[in-house]
Amino acid sequence: MRFRHLNELARLCADEGMSIGELMLAEQAAESGQSPEEEFVKMADYYTVMKDAVQRGLTEDTTSRSGLSGLDAQRVDAYNKSFPSNLGVAGDAMAYALAVSEVNASMGRIIATPTAGSCGIIPGVFVSCQERYGWSNEHMTYGLFAAGAIGYVIANNSFVSGAEGGCQAEIGSAIGMAAGALTELQGGNPAQAVHAVGLALKNTLGLICDPVGGLVEVPCIVRNGFGAVTALAAADMALAGVRSAIPTDEVIQVMLEVGSAMPDKHRETAGGGLAQTPTGKAILRNLSSLRTKPKKS
């Protein structure tokens, strides 16, 4: 890749008169040795998987094997359809993000964006906005390339793994990727997209990773739902002209600093946070007893 930082990415886009998605497609093709058409088809297939996961989460039984999660997406979706929602269109993004995360928890097929623990945010944002604006699948595929470029920069300068940098790394990165890509999908320029990433990331700095029972369910799934709404807000701010006072590349460095300083108990070990509340410990004991219970012959 010819860029390592988001300011470099935006400058390349400006110099070559390309969107972030277009530039990333060209860069990916050059790196892989495959044609841009082949790379585009591959990414389009990923988007199909995302849309299928949304649909599955809204229509099928997504109760997880642990019993800790499932069907909340359908509850939110039904509420959105039956009552005046406080969130309006953002309520759809929230429901769709929950849907994909519940498909993941119930061992369904998803695309890790950038991880399985944050897999609902980009599909939630993308599918809800595609429905709202009538965008084509081709337009959405370029959006995924834009999200990929943002994720590439974050991964190479900070973290995308909760085990390394806490939930700010997984959920935060996904929110930033979704916000920047959505800004571009809505007609924003690369500089505005980069500001959207910074605005999004600043809102999640310090978020710990504390999976109850060691499973990617509680509180991971609801964080995907909230994350989708945050991404929409960050994109709107950037498109309105709000700028990240701290340059986004510096925000990414702060994510690295904060994640490195985070105690191990707050980095996906289930050793702290919500996992170590009385209820969290009780859930772990219950799960442990279920795993050790002898099977009936």
TrEMBL record:
Pathway: Carbohydrate biosynthesis; gluconeogenesis
Enzyme class, UniProt record, top EC level: lyase
Keyword Ribosomal protein: no
Pfam family, one: SDH_alpha
GO biological process, one term: gluconeogenesis
Protein EC: 4.3.1.17
Protein family membership: Belongs to the iron-sulfur dependent L-serine dehydratase family.
Named cofactor requirement(s): [4Fe-4S] cluster
UniProt keyword terms in alphabetical order: 4Fe-4S, Gluconeogenesis, Iron, Iron-sulfur, Lyase, Metal-binding
Serine dehydratase-like alpha subunit domain mapped to chain residues: 16-275
Superkingdom classification of source: Bacteria
Catalytic activity as recorded in UniProt: L-serine = pyruvate + NH4(+)
Keyword Iron-sulfur recorded: yes
GO MF assignments: 4 iron, 4 sulfur cluster binding; L-serine ammonia-lyase activity; metal ion binding
Record-given protein name: L-serine dehydratase
